[in-house]
């Protein structure tokens, strides 16, 4: 009887210890994420859970964090300052444990954090008495859908107008320098490129790449696309007007018409990347033809 009591006591203690450890893992583990590209739509997906003891002991949650976690080479984690203005000396670095103020209402955020992590969030976003307005997300989604429909119909200029309006709406909800803004700007760059406005397309890719380089992994699909297009589309060189500029002024229209025969039939979102490559090849061919004619 004594041995049975000892065994039962040890089993209960062991179960309590295991439960305590599992609770610590559940509270302190972070979601390991990766970027996926499905038919041109880039999104972040959860691929596992990992426990980083030093990270868990040093970084707190905020619904408007000034830092984020970047996973490199599978499981290696980096803490990246995500705020455009940086952080002040002595300022606390914070990350999101999941809910963020731009994607989830205050009540839902606090309930999720209390259920998952056992604390009542008291960050600035959760403590303010100001009412939250998420109507900007619905407006942005509607405009994005308009852009898709226009692109599918081959009406690239209308797609550019809708996507540009969606980006402006998203800027009212996301903080400056947010990754989501950079992804939308990549989308706008591709549509602008399809519409034949190479100069502005390059400007959009350049702005997006500056953010993506800082906050995403090198193999990020949007970053790879932006860098490839920036290599293919060299920056415009300032030059003084001369008599030969008269011929140069009309050349882009001819190039655009030449390229339209090659890539203008691409109408679905998934064909945008291949259409971009064909357009670049068309411009290069037209440039060679123009040089040959001058010679």
How are the SSEs ordered, and which strands pair?
Layout lengths: L1 H27 L1 E9 L2 E10 L2 H6 L1 E2 L5 E6 L3 E6 L12 E2 L10 H12 L6 H4 L7 H18 L3 H16 L7 H16 L3 H18 L5 H12 L12 H19 L8 H23 L1
Helix pairs in contact: 5-6, 6-7, 7-8, 7-11, 8-9, 10-11
Describe this structure in words.
This protein has 295 residues and is mainly α. The protein has eleven helices and six strands. The protein has helices at residues 2-28, 53-58, 106-117, 124-127, 135-152, 156-171, 179-194, 198-215, 221-232, 245-263, 272-294, and strands at residues 30-38, 41-50, 60-61, 67-72, 76-81, 94-95. The strands form three sheets. It has a two-stranded antiparallel sheet. α7 packs across α11 (272-294) and α10 runs antiparallel to α11 (272-294). 22% of the residues are buried. The model is unreliable at 242-271 (pLDDT under 50).
Which properties best describe this structure?
mainly alpha, two-stranded parallel sheet, 6 strands, 295 residues, 58% helix, elongated, two-stranded antiparallel sheet
